[in-house]
Structures are given as C-alpha cells and as structure tokens.
Amino acid sequence: MMGEDKKNFLAIDIGGTFIKTALVDEQGLVTDRQEIENKFADKESFLEGLTQIIEQNVHQISGVGLSIPGVVDVKRQVIVSSARLAYLENVEFLDELAGKYQVPFVIENDGNCAALAEKRCGNLKGVANGAMIVLGTGLGAAVFVQDQLVHGAHFVAGEPSFMVLDDSATGRAKTAADLSVTEMVKQISLHLQLPEPYTGQAVFKQIQEGEPFAVGEFNHFCRHVATIIYNIQTILDLEQVVIGGGISRQPLLIEKINESLLEYFESDPLAHRTMTMPLVVAARLYNDANLVGAVVPLI
C-alpha cells in the first residue's frame, strides 16, 4: 500500500476479450497501460487472475476501480447480471479484497465508467444535465441529472438498446438492440465485397466517397441514434450529449447525427418552440475512458 501523499489508483477494465489495466492519478492521467487476454471461465480463475494484477501494483496504489460489462448494484457493489461474467453474478468479492490489501475497491458498469470519465475531465465536465451514448458492438448510455449519475431503481438506467424504434417490426427488430457499428461495418463490407478483415476505416472511405449503399446504411444508422437522443431529450431536457466509441472519431458521424436531430426538432412547430436541442459532440477520452472512469468514485 502506498502513502497518503500518493495519488495513483489501479484501474481494471474487464472486457469480453481483453482485460486492460493502468495507473490513473487524481487528474485523470493514465500511465502503465497493460493488456492481457481474458481467458477466465469461472469465478476461481478470474479471482486468481485479478489477485495477480493487484499484487503487481499494490505498493503504489491508493485504491482499485473495476469497469465491467453488465448491471452493477452500486449500493451492494456486486454484479447483478452480465452476459460475459455470469459466473460473478451476486458474488461479493470486493470486501474480501479490500480487507486483504487495505485499500478501497469499487465496481461500476463500463458505460457508466466512460461517462464518469467524461464528466470529470472530458466533454461532460461542467455539464449538469447531460448524457453519454457509446456506439460499438452494441449500444450503451449514461445520464447525469443535476450532476448526479442516474442508476435507476434497478440499476439499469441508460439501456437504450431496449428502446422501441419501430413498432411495426416484430420481436427484437422493434428495438435498438441491433443498432451496432460492428454490424453496419460488416453489412457494408459484405455488400461492397471489401477485403477482410472488415474495418471502419475502409467503410468510411466508401461513405466519404459517396458510395450509395454505404451512405444509405450510414444515414440510417445516424437517424436511429438521433431518434434515441430526441426521445431522451423529451424526458430529460439535457444540455449536451457526448458520443463515445471508436466511430466518434469520425466528424461526419457527429455532423450527420446533429443534422438528423435538427430535422426532428423542426418537424413539429410546437416541439421546435418548446424544446431545446442538446449539443451533440464527440467524446474526448476515447480508449482511456473506462479506465479513468473506473477510479473516479475513489478520487
């Protein structure tokens, strides 16, 4: 354990494929990044691997923050449900680790971690009422109301993938569950017979060059994201929405979402006079967001 004058925290971002770790200071500076393959298939092997990571850093840290894909009961500090970490559901392991290493441990949903990072030192800093939407393999979100992260009564606030987008469809297709950057890239690549491995860079080249199918799929994707933002805005009246995920580095994405969102606001004169369109911007922290956000509750 380090002295009280030290200000480094160990951040652990647990993904389905890789586990990323880093040291993060109170200003959000990230150092000593490491990455290992997540081969753990049960509670015992996971806790053994986690212990090894902590042991390597325990003498230079003041606390440990974990970012995980799943629903987290932040009051009990346990994972309620997780498709990738089902073997840890309702397992209370943090108190034991905190007692062993004499430093505090916290755990939070990965989407919330990204938002907490943007709130502390990114593009949600100073925004009392805002949201972050993360676009990737799936769709995630986190909302701040009066500077407080909203978890909800059952800790599942910020799950827009369950939002109904097309009531005329059937089953899963009704919702935003299939709104996926990965799937969009795949479908465009297959249609245009682009070489594998399929990449966002290759697809965006086609979009920027005006290839009709690619542009159509991209516009459809952005329209759905704008629909989600508009629906959230009708309830929460936000100031700003930050878009995260690797695709958010593409200025065209933010431009098109704003364009589609403006169309919604201007389609109804009363809505246009009554509501205020939130500012939609790209995230600032990108790949470090989960790591920084994992330790924000400790800072």
Automatic annotation (TrEMBL):
Gene3D superfamilies: 3.30.420.40
Family annotation (InterPro entries): ATPase_NBD, ROK
Keyword Transferase applies: yes
Single GO MF descriptor: kinase activity
Keywords for this protein: Kinase, Transferase
Domain of life: Bacteria
Keyword Transferase appears in the UniProt entry: yes
Family of this protein: Belongs to the ROK (NagC/XylR) family.
PANTHER family: ROK (REPRESSOR, ORF, KINASE) FAMILY (PTHR18964), SUGAR KINASE (PTHR18964:SF170)
Listed name of the protein: Transcriptional regulator / sugar kinase NagC
